[in-house]
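Title: Request for sanity check on MFS transporter prediction

Description:
We are preparing a figure and want to confirm that the structure record we downloaded matches what your pipeline produces today. Could someone re-run it with the sequence below and paste the raw structure tokens into this thread? We only need the token string, no images.
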Amino acid sequence: MTAVHQDTPRLGLRANVAQFSLLVGVNALVGGMLGQERTVVPLLATEVFGVPGYTAALTFIVAFGLAKAATNYVAGTLSDRFGRKPVLVAGWLVALPVPFLLIWAPSWGWVVFANVLLGISQGLTWSTTVVMKIDLVGPARRGLAMGLNEAAGYAAVALTALATGYLAAAHGLRPAPFYLGIAFAGLGLGISTLFVRETREHARLEARSHVARADGRHDHLGDHLGNGEVFVQTSFKEPALSSASQAGLVNNLNDGLAWGLFPVLFLSAGLSIERIGLLAAIYPLVWGVGQLVTGGLSDRWGRKWLIATGMGVQALGLAIMATAEGFGWWATAAVLLGAGTAMVYPTLLAAIGDVAHPAWRARAVGTYRLWRDGGFAVGAVLAGILADLYGVRTAIGTVAALTALSGVVVAVRMYETRHDPAHPVPTGDPR
């Protein structure tokens, strides 16, 4: 009798604190796999392989973004069909060869291939940790859950970018910085296989107890949407879902630009690798730590205006990065870019969770992340072409303008998605 009680799923952060905390740690390892590249790989392109032109040098981000975007979409469907844990474990298996490929790559093409594998791995692992946390906490603390998840991931990105910068300065661009990736992949696979538990039953429990919004918004979508319907609603039709999808794409468009071009800009200004690593870490560190605050704030203040304002703050940071000169100004710009992204990132995921019915929420998250991480590829191509034609600063300034425009779209089109489950539509209400 006791065993049955222990295996019965319960919703809420307190009821699932052990598994939730474990998944926070797993996502930190996922972020570390990405962070091993933030400082070093753009410099490998120019300093080791002599890749000509910005567009060609950013092919590794295009490969990563396309692979991750496509895998995000598949991950949602797979996790609904087979469960969350098998998808998570599969993602770590794909990650295992990545640091070895980066260490031993004899040509730039091998680095691009490693980033295809990294994108697939990130799509499977990061998407699944997001869905699993949403499963566990239920509707009341969704913003906080996403803040903790994304904070762990991007704080790890930042700290690993900083660490690899110092390792590269002390021991060279290869192989020392990528030893961290080997450790992260091994730990992630072991913890996910041995200790993480399946959460799909938590989503089914929430679906059985789902209540409609008091204002009747979006509940007409129902709980039996097919894959194509989920894609269309999330991408284009449903105002909040589609507004979140375009904002996510633009957010990662500017992140792809930051990943690929900022280290090159700083190197051209004569900064040392240690200082480049520090600047590369400031932006995701502020982003990561900031989400510890902004995720919970969105549960109290709402989603819409945090997203719209955050896009504006990002645009300001990019504008300063494009026009200013020197470490101090660039550090200020990185702080603003990180703060704006912290306002946006967990809040967009929480908004998707607000709108999507638990029965098709994993697929909606996958579709949103398809668009969001497609922004890496769009950003790398756009930034590379503009940088080759007009220079790095023009590329950054153009992306700043696009980011501001995205915030306007959210302000005009998106409705507030946070709702109070304590005030459902009464039984028999025609809404």
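Thanks, this matches our download. The radius of gyration is 21 Å.
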